[in-house]
# Entry
Amino acid sequence: MYLVGFYSPKAKSGVTELSLSIYHWLKMNTDLAAAFISYGTLEKEGLSDEVIHDFSKLTLTEQKRIVKKMKKEFDIIIYDASSQLSEGVLKLLPIVDRLFVIGEENTDFAVKLHQIIQFNKIFDKGVKNFIQHLKGNKTFIIRENKEGRVIGFNYTKKETNDIGQMVYRDYVTRYLEEKFIEKNEKIYKKIKLIPKETLFRGLYELGIDFEKALLFHEYVLLREALGQNYHEALENLFPLLINSSFEEILEKFQNEIKFITKLKLS
# Structure
């Protein structure tokens, strides 16, 4: 499930009109199973399994239940996040994968909003719980592209087709990334079963270059020596093992040692 939000802090800014046009564009131009959630009331759209009205009036439990159900049934969901600035809206925006902030003058606002969303993802327990509920219990993220998640623009200068194409490309990219994550989760599960003392040998037997496996083992042990839990260190460093070369891991390893040395000397 890929969730795309449309939002503006200004009333009557055309959020619903634009988001509905993208929803209909996806229905007409792709074979994706698309759905629509509106924070407020829709005047011209009837209620159905794929069109939800008055999302703001539902309890958090009901919101979770509906989104979880739609996640299983639809490929992509367009979320009409409303044209108002409220705590309720801010708490729901972090659940989207891509957010469009409407209004050319709102580019700076979009940047600040992104900062608030990231803050809520980290520190707001309700938001964290909702996100975990939607995303599932992924043990790690191979690659999280935080740039461009929030875009500010004036919708009168954008064709529905342009935005629709962007949303569709986003979905396809996300789909491939999730498949990549699934494959790597299988590898990670095997790595977790390797005894700590022979981690490098187990990695080598899984197909990792010996030098890289040995360096990674030392990196995990360094983190553990600094007080980090072994399995937590393994989880944190796993994306580095998958995505980085021996030279890149070595550079990060050496930089971390230098940083620790400076701290001890200061």
About this structure: Strands lie at 2-7, 34-38, 51-52, 76-80, 98-102, 150-153. The chain has a mean pLDDT of 78.
